[in-house]
Known about the structure:
By secondary structure, the chain is mostly beta strands. It is 11% helix and 35% strand.
Amino acid sequence: MVPGQCVTSLIVTALGMVHTISAMATGDARLSGGTEAKGRVEIWDGRSRRWGTVCDDLWNLDDGDVVCKQLGYLGAYRVFSGFEVGRVFGWTNLDIFLDDLQCEGNESNLFQCQRNRGQHNCNPNERAGVECILTTDIRLVMRGRANDRVGHVEVAINGEWGKVCDDGWNEQSATVVCRQLGRSLISWNPSLREAFTDVRYVIDDVDCRGDEAQLLDCGRRELWYNNCADNEVASVICG
């Protein structure tokens, strides 16, 4: 094979799922045992010319973001670790290539993250998995109706709508929301009488710089995890 040449092949996972693999460079990734956007994380090592797995020590959303974005998705929806990976995606005899990953989330592949390569203290049941974000949307809700100008912020992940908590909410975060809606910011913390909505919180502790393309690109807690009361919903007025 010519160095750098891509090879397309069909990979049949332990659960019978078939994925097409068309890249064979160090750091290339695939998800096995699940669906197109969910599975056990496996990576290609060009030196040994083998697929391997990732240990779940320190495995988190930033690490999952790297894999999902590398595969063309919007980011990581949630991460899996330990026995759950084997139970959901099947067990594997592949070697563990990476341990103690500490990604920032903007790397091109996991080999670019701070990590232990080739050395680990992990058991065979300590594998990493991830579910990626397929679709996302954003809207403002006021008096039960969605619009793009004023209201409480709601975000949809893979088709499910949730609200945004106001912990950490500031002008930078509101600017990102209005930009994502194709508008400019007027007010980032308006006092809206209607403070309750019947969907659960999807984003908490949002931390934006202000130049992100969408709210999900900002720092945050793991999706659907929060410590917010019903009336702590982020709101905004866009122009």
